[in-house]
Amino acid sequence: MINVLIVEDDPMVAELNRQFVARVDGFTVIGHAADTKKAFELLAVAEVDLLLLDIHMPGMNGLDFLRQLREEKQDLDVILITAASKISQIQQALRLGAVDYLIKPFEFSRFQDALMQYKNHYDGLGDKSKVDQQELDRMLQKKSEPVQETSSVGKVPKGLTKTTLKKIIEVTLQAEKDTFSTEDIAEISHISRVSVRKYLKFLTEIGYLEENLVYGIGRPIYRYLVKESSRSRITSYL
Length: 238
What we know:
Distance between the termini: 49 Å
Structural class: alpha/beta
């Protein structure tokens, strides 16, 4: 079992991360720290394999915390989970040995990929004293992402239809609120939530919609906004 420590100042995000970890076999959350001071205290008494670390926190920020861990030669791995998206921050994190970097908001599938990729490395190296080049290359090889059909301008991805896409777009433009959820569009269009989610995902991928994870009472939900400056991006798909 891989022991995970969550270092995140937002309690709702920390709880969401904890729930995500619980859905991935082979991992267990052994603690949560709302700041780096608490994180140091937990690291002193608990056996931790993996940190899920935010950058923007009160007191010492995540990058300085990670730098101090490396200076102290702490034997653990780190995945950054943060809204910080500046190239300089990402470069610093990678240079300090972060094994992955997730920019909020993100889908569970991306979170799961990060943990499973880490687990493959952890399991592959944990019980060996040495490996050959071929085996090392196999363990370090990132899972190749499927080529999205959306890369062909004007071609609707497999499983979607232009007729339904056009209807979804019309409903998004008629929505009474500036932002809307999958449930909102499903209710207005009378199309299943699962189907609507696929179309909204596609529209987000091509830049027509902006997607944001909103925290409130209950579970977080994704809300969408039509990007006025990018409306023309949909024209070739209709």
